[in-house]
Fold these 4 entries.
Entry 1:
Amino acid sequence: MNVRKLLIIAVENWPAKVLSIGLAIILFVFHRMSSLETRFFSVPLNIEHNGPLLPSNPYPRMIRVSLRGEANSIFPILEEDIEVYVDMNKLDVPGVYAIPIQWRKKGTAQGVDPLQITVDPMEIILTLDHRISKVVPLAASLRGQVETGYTMTSYSLNPSQITIEGPAELIWSISEIFTETIDLEGRRNDFFVTANVMNRDPLMIVRGNGISEFHGIIRQIIPVRTITGVPIAITGLSERFTGELDVKTGSIRLEGENQANVDRFEPAPNFLSIDCSGINEPGTYVLKVISGATGNMRARAEPEEIKVHINRAAGAGRP
């Protein structure tokens, strides 16, 4: 009898009771949701692919993640334990694709409940191209000037070539790769440095250890000046003879250690000459052109030798 009364009471006005229970559940859920906290951070986007294609257009490298849950549950979660990725493993035809961004929980994020995870953006547009590789020359990026009076005559890199890999359109457009900047400022001796190989395009992969050895060859600059139109004098010729040169003037190539001294130098009279003191008979002779004193500078005459025609002087008889 008591059981029957209980059943009658339970089903009496049941629509109102069901509505009340439903409302209570909604209020409970609403209260719980309103008490949840939200946390935001950004994590790297991983591109998962084992096939022949690679992205050939820029895409977001960092993805914004929001965690919603109880404060004491979501704030201890490490950022690296929310992994964000796109899966390209099933794509094998070049083209443009809208690919959803997915996420997975690891470590401290596992077992947390309630936990709502959302990502922004929810998908990315990727242009996919064939993966290729090729070998390109490596060039040095240089900055500054060696010490005044010196010059870098040459340099070498080891290795001098680099293998690069990436989407076909990008890789075919690259003709050389540069090192990081190498500073020449104030150098006056040969030198060795190691330099990183620069990769300024995130879509490209540089194979190897990414380091090259640079060897610079530096030499001192020898100041040089050429003075033209310098008269060539005939010296030491006996008064019994006269001399006639094929060429009346020559030039001086002057070398020294100090540019100012080289620039100031002026040849003295008879600076260039030929010595005819050993000539005792008329005729045509080829004699060396002699340079005068230059202090600590070096002088080279041009021409080095010259023809001189020797004749008897008027009124001069044989000895």
Entry 2:
Amino acid sequence: MVLDALHAGARERLGARLVGLYLYGSLATGDFSAATSDIDFAIATAGELDARDVAALAGLHAELRARGGLFAALEGSYIPVAALRRWDPANARHPHLSHERPFGVEPHGPDWVIQRHVMREWGVAVAGPPARELIDPVTPGELRAAVRATLDGFWAGFGSSDAFLRERPYQVFAVQTMCRALHTLEAGAISSKPAALRWAQSALPAEFQPAIARALAFPGGDQRDDLAGTRALIAFTQRASRS
């Protein structure tokens, strides 16, 4: 129902310029939770969208979000097929829907190397050709470089700030992301967040095990505030990325 409405609404506004609708993230890797997960999507377009297109899509997403429930869990981007092929920092500003900001054109950072890889290898084509036909393979070296760039960018700034980490769900998100980053640095591959947490239970020092266990149990179990422990794991991961 949610995806049908998204596809129909985007097709109404874009017409034949809508090349495909793809799911990635937890829905693609098999660890989606209706209670905590976003519905991550990407719509491939034939060419760049202009200001009128962006305004029309902003209206669509306002209508969908107003329905509530899983409609409010949608998060995604509209990316021209030429930019979807390979991540290029010089061609990385595209219309984006997030929970934090109004719909609009935003930069897509090096983490999109990882998102494209997930989309190519595990993504679900709701409409259009298989993602493998639109996205080039991503090498282990490119995945490691993307992790390092994200750790030196977002996670060195806003990601480790009080403003971001004050709420418990974002602490859990940080722990999940750090465990997945460490696994990628070691293996040159991407795993789901739950799989990365399970790997970290045997791979990381004892001081981080309580935070890992709570992240695995989220939203249940003991979910005490752990700002200091979360920051310690972020710092540990950043040091590991530079070694």
Entry 3:
Amino acid sequence: MSSGYPRLSMHTVHLGDDAYVMAMSGVLSPDSVGLAGIWLAKAMAESARVLVDVSGLWAASAAAVQVFPSVLARAGGWPYAQLVLFGARPELTRTLEALRVPLTVPLAPDESAARMLLDRRPPVVLRTVDLEHAASSARRARVFVSAACDDWQLDMIRDDAMVVASELVANAVVHAGTASRLALRCRQHGMTVAVYDHRPDLQLPLRPVAENQQGHGLFMVAALSLHWGVRLGQDEKCVWAFLPTTASVTYSQSVRKSAYDAVRVVLTHGATSSDATAVQQLVAQLAEQHGMDFVRDVAVELAAELAEVSSAVISSDDH
């Protein structure tokens, strides 16, 4: 390396029942980040509570510091795994903060302060899992999300998050045809579910192409999330969805479920059913409590979903 910085090295300072304390020094660069990841992963396998002295560490690449949240997420993230950095030089501190690393991996001035942060939940918690190119991966995704929602106290969005993750992983298996990585990122106002596959050149269809009429593909993802999108990289594609945990989301979900129930009854028994009337009363009550803007948002969402229902009914009649 032309920088003159020392080679990356790591050694154990203390390995006890309370925490694994290690020191990382030298230069963290694209060439050495893989080695850093191996060392960190090994430390977290030996102890779920790891403190890293980075007072002797330089970052030759800003992106390389993402190795810390990446390893933490693969180890299970909070509360199963805790990772805290301490003693960073001003230059490294600025790099870590610019990449928002301390939101997921706390940064302390010294070891004493770092120990106090071990049991404190970070502002952002992460968890990732690698999934095979197999039909069973969608089920594994649901189990993975359910466990995370337990740990992060997200009961209000558990069911929706499980469906979203399952649909995104199924799309990666069926349409991208590759293995995938499921990543969960939880912050104060909600959780992002992201699935990475290895086909950035292949756009995903809004509806499934060949899933034996099971699931609703990205339409279901759009219906259950506040925002969703696709990010293309050089070697991978990320399809993500954000599920908020606000009170309005709970109301919206209640309206959606009631409306679907009413639609089923109306299609079967006609528009005079009591369920349809109950939905009208519910919407009127929500308009009175939360305003017409809220009702319009729900109406737009419901209209899109009903269009999908109508399409499915027409397709069924054709066959």
Entry 4:
Amino acid sequence: MPNIDFNGARIAYLESGSGETVLLLHATATAGDQWRSLDKMLGADCRLLAPDLYGYGETDPWPGSGPYTLAAEVALAEAVLPPGGGKFHLVGHSYGGAVALRFAMRQPERLLSLVLIEPVAFHLLCDDTPSNRRLFLEAMEIAALVWRATASGDYRSGMGGFIDYWNGPGSWIRLKPEVQAALARRVPKVALDFRAVTMESTPLAAYRRIAVPTLVLCGSESPGPTRRIAELLAERLLRARLQTIEGAGHMLPLTHKDAVNAAIAEHLLRGRAVRGRPAAA
């Protein structure tokens, strides 16, 4: 697995294929290899780059060089892109979706297209709408659970609650003990991820500056907060469309990978067709 040295840390990433670059950003507590099935579908036509974000997979933990924010992960993702500032497609799921949104706001001119899969942009729920506010507080209960687990050292219970919230009750207990142990060790980074997304403050209206073709994916059975965030972004972004994967939950790139991969592939193909049209006379 290739890696680079960046900001005092080793950053590992998957790389395959050739053609237009597609940067893939994974969810909290997973790693870049969550995109391997998409690699098999697109690898022959695209250059796929899937970094392990800080503290996941084979990438080193956050080195502690200042307060941790989404900007730190954006800089990590940018570091694995080819030099020269060329354009690329950006795909992000969950926490990776929040990082992708931050990246898109920072450098919208570099994007060819954008795919957001239930980004955990919880700040978009923090308004005066009672239903949105309830969903925001629901998400903050999970954040508080992880923060308490980190402070007390009870990583297993914190991760258990986190996994059951995003995957459904009983999901944690069904995991093998060695998988539980590996996930529990990631709780301190999960706590940092929650900190990063809750510190974000970009207002919903500002996202209109993202004008590239955007696919917003969500699962019909996902928790309320991320389904609502997907709806808000699809309504606000200038060239966005919302697609719901029936029967899927928040981890849809893993549980419903065929449907998700097909949607992403179709989105990229549609973008190529549009860019290939001759200009109007």
